[in-house]
Each structure stands twice: as C-alpha cells, then as structure tokens.
Amino acid sequence: MQSWTVCILGATLLAATTAAAAQPATSPPAAQPAPQASPQPSPSDAEMNSCLCQEQNVARLNDDVRNQSRTYDDTRRNFQALDNQVLSSRSQVNVNNPGDVDAFKRLLDQRDAAADTLAGNATRSYADAVTHYNQAVAAYNSSCAGKSFDSDRLAQLRRTLSCPKP
Description:
mainly alpha
C-alpha cells in the first residue's frame, strides 16, 4: 500500500516539474493544482480492529457449527442404532412373556426419546449455530471483505487485540 502512495506522489511531482519547465521563462507557472489520483483512504486502526474482531468471531462461530454438527451426527447415529434395534427385536418379542414385552417397551421409550432429542434440541441447536455463523459472515463480508489492509499494521494490532465479549 505504501509503494502505491510513493508512486502516485512521485508521478504528481514529476508532472508538476514538467509542467513548470514547459512554461515560458517570462511568465510564472500556472497556479493550478496537479491532477492527483484518488487513492483509497487507508483504513483506520479502529476499522482494522473491528474487522479483526469480526474475523475472530467468525472463527469462533465456525467452531460452534462444527461442534453442533458433531453433536447432531452423534444424536442421529444414536437414534438410528436404536431404531434398527427396534426393527430387529420386534419379530423376536414373545408377547406371552411379560419380561420380553417390558424390555421391548423400554427399548421403544429409548428410541422415542432419541427421536425427540434429534427432532428437537439437536436440530434446533445446529440450525441456530448455522444461522449465527451465516449472519457473522455476512456482517464481515459487508464491512471488511475487499478492503486493503497493511499486513504489518494488522500483525501489530493482532498482538494487542482486545475484542468485546460476543
């Protein structure tokens, strides 16, 4: 970023010197400002800190999504295992044996509880984590993506970064 500023400044000085040399010796140089390219203003430390904190938040939320995905997958596998056990056990239950019937009812209760957990808390938690992650990514993209940051300054700011609690 600094090299562009030097190039633009050098080109401006060269253009001004050349224009002054082209004027006749009897008349003073014209008092016109030299045309300057409009470089993008460099982001402030506050803007860079904000983007670094948003980046940190996106990474944290990505970890949350991965954890919720693992929890959801574990819950789904648990339900599927119990459901398969119900399917395979059903034909082997002796309806004349109260012990077999009670054991099968307990298995059904376990399977139903696992289905409720999968359909309720596991799915809701995973969906909430994905929603929060997507919102954070959209916020980061709208305020930080495409900006040019000085990598040395970013490294300095990262060392002392203090972000608000999410």
